[in-house]
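Section 4.2 – Deliverable D4.2 (structural model, holo form)

The reporting period included a commitment to supply a predicted holo structure for the target in complex with zinc ion. Inputs used:
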Amino acid sequence: MTTPPPRTLALPYPWQQPHWQRLLQWQAQGKLPHALMLSGQGGIGKAHFARAAAQYLLCSAPRSGLACGSCRACELNLAGSHPDLLWVQPQEAGKAVKVDQIRELADFVAKTAQQGGMKLAVIAPAEAMNVNAANALLKSLEEPAGDTLLILVSHSAGRVMATLRSRCQLLALPTPSPEQALPWLSQLVSGEDPRALLQYAGGAPLAALELLEGDLLERRAEFLAGLVGVAQGQVSALEAAAASMKAEPLKLLDWLLGWLQLGARQLAGIAAQGEAEGEQLQALFSGVQPGHLYRYLDKVILAKGQLLSGANPNKQLLLEELFMDWSALLRSRAAARQSQRNGLT
Ligand SMILES: [Zn+2]
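Output (structure tokens):
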């Protein structure tokens, strides 16, 4: 997720406390790494943690393990203009981080801090770096960077070049339990059931909140209706794909992954009672061969990986393929039922 310049100081979320304490400990012991990778599911607040860390580490008078909010450094951070913080992200959502942006980062690292403290550079998400960008970053990591902390934020650490990953201290941020996430989410949500939103978002609280922006819930319902329609033979894969064109592909893949994972849990007999959309999905997945479902899941994960690494596939073709494979998955269910019936007679 991209983050606009903050209006208020970023404070670590309640579920990030143990990791925040670890950061404070590293700093207190003079053991801050030169490169830190924050990994974890999308929508749990990794970029927010990076922002909070930057503000804290740049603050000249931190109090109780948090930035003070009133020193010169904090003022600059609140204005989004601290000269010793560089935030690198794709110029457009879903696009690649380019080598020019990493060259700019290398220049930033080579300069002395303007405010006399340390410098921070954040790359979010790190897997959006194309190969040239990742190689350029590797080169700049090889040279000592003085008092600079580089933070790589990653929803998919496995997609970041291994040689880069191995140079970073890893901090795996958790997806909170519903018990941790719901009190936070409930304060910010009105008119929708926070528990259902959290489930729609695969347990990621910020992604749950984001569902309320614009028409995402509507787009999501449309997409699910398309999957159900194809399953019931009411619409063709191509029609369903055309009806889902309004949504962002990455969102669609995330939703689909959530449903498929729920389906996989149902097939394994471990789905929790009362899961949002659970019944609707139960009807869809019943009779699907787990092996077929996992093959489809792999395809969707692959497509998501390609999108995250800045590939720019033809959206219509991507959707048509997803729906056609979905249709094939469900036909395999019908075939399995048929052969079961034949076996019985
Ligand atoms: Zn301060």
